[in-house]
Prior knowledge:
The protein is an alpha+beta fold. The longest helix has 15 residues, at about 95-110. Helices cover about 25% and strands about 35% of the residues. The protein has a 7-stranded mixed beta sheet. It has helices at about 15-25, 40-45, 95-110, 125-130, and strands at about 5-10, 50-55, 60-70, 80-85, 115-120, 135-145, 150-160. This is GNAT family N-acetyltransferase. InterPro entries: Bact_Acetyltransf (IPR050832), GNAT_dom (IPR000182).
Amino acid sequence: MANSVWVRLSQMKDASELMELDHLVWQRNNTPSVVRWNNREEFMRKCPPGSQLVAGMDDKICGYLGFDHPTPLESNKHVLEINIAVHPGCQRMGIGQKLMEAVKELAAAKGVRKLSLRVLSSNPDAVAFYRKCGFQEQGRLVEEFHLDGQYVDDILMWSPVEQT
């Protein structure tokens, strides 16, 4: 890779680029509900600054990894649920790997013990990427969604967070 990849927490100034990235990445083959933001305010309510790690090269954002606790329960604070998106033109360039490494470091620093995510069975490249990053299947909601004429499983995956 000619350019080095940087990773940092999201900032208010990133909103427009992140909204555009959602528009490019989230399609019927990789999400049961395509993400379309009505306006910047809606995006900022759902994805406030600091709720995502952003990665890029030079001054361009190439991907993000969102993270949050799956529930507001105190007994669930040791888990972070994540979602990741990488610009189609920047895939297979190490962006996703850098984001995964960064979230594992962030999670360990916060005392988080488990990362979890959901991925559709119609997205085998993503499943393979997550496995490469140390995630394993913890459950499967069989035929959970009906997308483009086919039934698709919702695969639940997890990875332990090594405590430092």
